[in-house]
């Protein structure tokens, strides 16, 4: 995307303070940080939909966020962290998937505010049932589908085998 700031950083049209990069992801210091030491981690490709992000890239983004945080904590002695992942339409200017890691300091006065509401218990129950049933169905799907043609229709972004291992004890 020509006008996306994250793409510009990834393709080096914009200079940045790069902490780590490989073929898939890049991590840079935030030049307009909400707090000292804030940094950004994002895929190099312009991907907007978090639900279609490859598992390996997802894991790498969170693991590198943790490793950089370990080093940063030694230097800045922060007291806590917020990790905010944004993708798609969130009211932000760019839709590119990005993780913002925000070190928090006691009395830093940063307010992350949500307008909370009391959810209907019957909707919570319905949603819980739907999600758990779907996860179990998905976890069985790979192992149950014997025919190759059927397997090809299965989403490649999901590791069904892993999902199945996680849910094995619950089935
Ligand atoms: Zn982009």
From TrEMBL:
A GO BP annotation: sulfur compound metabolic process
GO MF, one annotated term: adenylylsulfatase activity
InterPro entries, per the entry: HIT-like, HIT-like_sf
Protein name: HIT family hydrolase
A Pfam family of this chain: HIT
Signal peptide: none
Domain of life: Archaea
Record keywords, A-Z: Hydrolase
SUPFAM superfamilies hit by this protein: HIT-like
Domain HIT: 5-111
Source organism (scientific name): Nanobsidianus stetteri
Keyword check for Lipoprotein: no
Alphabetical list of Gene3D superfamilies matching this protein: HIT-like
């Amino acid at each position: 995307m020509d006008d996306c700031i994250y793409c510009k950083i990834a393709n080096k049209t914009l200079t940045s303070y790069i902490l780590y990069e490989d073929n898939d992801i890049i991590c840079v210091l935030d030049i307009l940080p909400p707090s000292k030491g804030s940094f950004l981690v994002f895929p190099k490709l312009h991907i907007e939909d978090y639900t279609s992000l490859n598992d390996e890239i997802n894991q790498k983004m969170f693991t590198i966020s943790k490793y950089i945080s370990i080093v940063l904590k030694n230097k800045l002695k922060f007291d806590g962290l917020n990790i905010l992942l944004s993708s798609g339409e969130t009211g932000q200017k760019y839709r590119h998937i990005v993780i913002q890691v925000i070190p928090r300091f006691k009395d830093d006065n940063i307010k992350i505010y949500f307008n909370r509401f009391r959810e209907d218990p019957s909707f919570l129950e319905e949603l819980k049932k739907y999600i758990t049933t779907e996860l179990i169905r998905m976890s069985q799907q790979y192992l149950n589908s014997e025919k190759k043609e059927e397997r090809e229709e299965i989403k490649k972004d999901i590791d069904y085998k892993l999902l199945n291992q996680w849910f094995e004890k619950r089935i």
